[in-house]
Design brief:
Structural class: alpha/beta
Radius of gyration: 19 Å
CATH class: Alpha Beta
Helix content: 25-40%
Largest sheet: 8 strands, parallel
Number of helices: 11
CATH architecture: Alpha-Beta Barrel
Number of strands: 12
Order of helices and strands: HEHEEEHEHHEHEHEHHEHEEEH
Distance between the termini: 46 Å
Strand order of the largest sheet: 9-8-7-6-5-2-1-10
CATH topology: TIM Barrel
Shape: globular
Length: 329
């Protein structure tokens, strides 16, 4: 059987132990697919993806994970800027310990966990020059968390953009997936297309031939509504902007019809509206996106917990009731 476009990992020299793992991997790939164990997910945004030089942490406390579980979410997506803490083939011990603490705390609360490689800007700017480092980083992550139970998924890269087109990303995904599969043949792995994980880029993702791979997309359309007045962006869309016209709803339905028609199951890894949007329209958009996903059997993950799109106020230690209502009622 010919290999899908873009997913040939190339020849590898392996020792006997790795070969046995690869043979086991082939057995798993031949088995029937299992359902992706995610339904309602929350992004732990503005925490581990901030990076060494950032000062925009939201104010994480471990008890926040218990609040997420108690609210009714079944999964925690953990965006992490691992590339800032990776050198000489190893992840900095302190950062690795932080990652492990979040993962283990979430699993202790009964949450499935998605570890997402976030803000790898150098890879977006120079895919060829950074490609080997990207693959080595995933080899290190796979080895570091090989002991974590299967309630952990790996998301290879958040929102490819710039020079990292879908066609350029696919060979890198294949090489990273091969490193993961050499150690973890049944770990769930997630990846998406370019243009910020756009719905339209799903069409360029081939069937991976792996029952434990799921494709992801993000949805923030229209940008003029969801990102209105965003202080971190140059030339941010003006505020107030409103949403809910028949044309708005038609755009939403068409996007999710496209995602549902994809040949591989899909995961809505991010969607959200900035907090300063008009409150009624923000709630209307969140409910409409959530319902569009659920109507098509697409699991979803809200962006995010305690930051500028947040559902939770860490200062008052309270949920935004309108957001929870839009996500659960």
């Amino acid at each position: 059987m010919s290999q899908p476009r873009g997913l040939s990992a190339g020849p590898r020299i392996v020792n006997d132990g790795v070969m046995l793992r690869l043979l086991f991997c082939l057995c798993v790939l031949a088995a029937p697919a299992h359902a992706f164990p995610v339904s309602r997910c929350m992004n732990l945004s503005n925490h581990l993806e901030v990076g060494r030089d950032g000062n925009w942490h939201y104010g994480y406390r471990p008890e926040h994970i218990a609040r997420i579980a108690a609210a009714g979410f079944d999964t925690l997506r953990v965006p992490a800027r691992v590339s800032d803490y990776f050198s000489d083939g190893a992840i900095a011990p302190g950062f690795a310990a932080e990652l492990r603490a979040v993962i283990e705390t979430a699993q202790a609360e009964g949450l499935f966990v998605i570890l997402d490689l976030h803000h790898y800007d150098a890879l977006m700017e120079d895919p060829e020059g950074e490609g080997a480092r990207f693959v080595a980083l995933w080899a290190a992550l796979a080895a570091k968390f090989d002991d974590i139970p299967e309630g952990l998924a790996f998301e290879l890269l958040n929102e490819p953009v710039g020079e990292l087109t879908t066609d350029r990303a696919l060979p890198l995904y294949a090489r990273a997936l091969a490193e993961i599969r050499a150690l973890q043949p049944d770990r769930w792995v997630i990846f998406g297309g370019a243009d910020w994980n756009a719905v339209s880029e799903l069409a360029g993702l081939p069937d991976p031939g792996d029952p434990r791979v799921i494709h992801t997309f993000h949805y923030y359309r229209p940008d003029a509504f969801t990102h209105q007045g965003a202080t971190w962006r140059e030339n941010a869309p003006p505020s107030p902007a409103y949403w809910g016209s028949p044309e708005d709803l038609a755009q939403l339905e068409a996007a999710f019809d496209s995602a549902a028609a994809h040949h591989t199951p899909t995961f809505l890894g991010e969607f959200g509206v900035i907090q300063n949007a008009p409150a009624e329209d923000r709630q209307r958009w969140l409910r409409a996106v959530r319902e569009a996903a659920e109507a098509r059997g697409i699991p979803w993950c809200h962006w995010g917990f305690g930051a500028g799109f947040g559902a939770f106020d860490p200062q008052t230690d309270t949920w935004d009731a309108a957001v929870l209502e839009a996500l659960f009622e």
